Amino acid sequence: MSQLLVRNLLPSIKEILRVRAMQHGVSMEAEARDILCKELMRKEATNTLSQQVTRLFGRTGFVKGEGIAELKGHAIQPVSFE
Predict the structure, then answer these.
(1) 6-48 pLDDT, tens per residue?
(2) What HEC string does the chain produce?
(3) Max Cα separation, the chain?
């Protein structure tokens, strides 16, 4: 297992952590570990494919509402599988 040392933590944050740890009946270290794991896993779970695509191609120059230049003047038709 890896270790992490957090420096310059505000005293108020340390106190909140101490109280939460006491409420959960665990050490401050265990509480901090639980908070980090839950928050990072939640962030990973919300990292959807659409968010990844947006990050990759979000700055390509497409302007919302303008449409795609190559399709101007062409009607978009649904695909027929018959």
Answers:
(1) 899 999 999 999 999 999 999 999 999 999 999 888 777 666 7
(2) CCCCCCCCCCHHHHHHHHHHHHHHCCCHHHHHHHHHHHHHHHHHHCCCHHHHHHHHHCCCCCCCCCCCHHHCCCCCCCCCCC
(3) 68
Whole-model pTM above 0.90?
no
Neighbour-count burial for 51-75, b at 16+ CB within 10 Å, e otherwise: eeeeeeeeeeeeeeeeeeeeeeeee
Q: What count of residues does the chain have? A: 82
